[in-house]
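Sequence in, structure out. Go.
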Amino acid sequence: MSMIRDLRAVVRPSSRVSLRKESSPYDATRDPATTTAVVDCAVYRDGRRLVTEGGPLTPHEAMRLVRRDGGFVWIGLHEPNEAEFAGIAREFGLHPLAVEDAVQAHQRPKLERYDDSLFTVFKTVHYLDHDELSASSEVVETGEVMCFTGRDFFITVRHGGQGSLRALRHRLQDDPELLAKGPSAVLHAIADHVVDGYIAVADAVQDDIDEVETEVFSPGRKGTPRATDAGRIYQLKREVLEFKRAVSPLLRPMQLLSERPMRLVDPDIQKYFRDVADHLARVQEQVIGFDELLNSILQANLAQASVAQNEDMRKITSWAAIIAVPTMVCGVYGMNFDHMPELRWKYGYPMVLGITVALCLGIHRTLKRNGWL
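Output:
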């Protein structure tokens, strides 16, 4: 059979290939000015990338090589429209429902099995650096990676500016033994890559939550807790909720890939999915903990705001009580009566002032002792 393949390679010069590892001209994020959504298209045989001497392969040419000589084709696309994806869908016999989901995006993480392929949706999460967390700060940015896994093909459809798979492709090409396992090895690598991104984002979000928590419970003036802007806490909670929407629905698909035998997943690769599912479960527990902790922080912040308002009202009430004494005395002696106590006595004026000051000082001391001032 190997001799026949060699002969075919000789008599078909248009399909000249080599086993040299090189970078592809497609190896870049899609330029919006180009007319193709294909980021990369390559044929892999025995774990090594076949590089054509005549330039990059089209998906049709790549699949023709695979059907003739074996191996599998890996096609990467970035935000294709319906017309751009229609030809590839026909070439590989992709299910119309999966194609519709891949083009429209905004799907929840899931795993769907069709006759000759698996359709997997991953939510990629990227942490956005910021100098200071505010009520309008974006903490996480999400994208999507859709994967079609077949017997002899693997197609990735990426949406969003983050989550490039170029570095991942290069790492896989440096490990021919793993890549020789076929498309399921690529599916595992992408799942592991996405979950590793979750772990990094979870660590960064933890730092933001720690910062907010420290600020809420750090003492303010006179040793009392200081209230923090509730908008910042609520914004962080919304970002954590978006993170949670990416992590939680993916746990079940990873468990299925790790526990249930599937025709399109190599048994040796299936063992690796268990590790991915374990890491994902830990991230899910972290995110749930973030949500509960932020609920507690938000409630504590609102309680502190109420306490601060009560403190202000007590001070206002205390000073109103003190001022009420001279107001009452002045109101009585401001009346135009001829017969009033001590009105004609020369010491009456200083005596009234003294009694007023003494009463005010006595009330102030009492309120101070009770913590109202």
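Check: The first helix runs from residue 2 to 11. Residues 1-35 have pLDDT under 50 and may be disordered.
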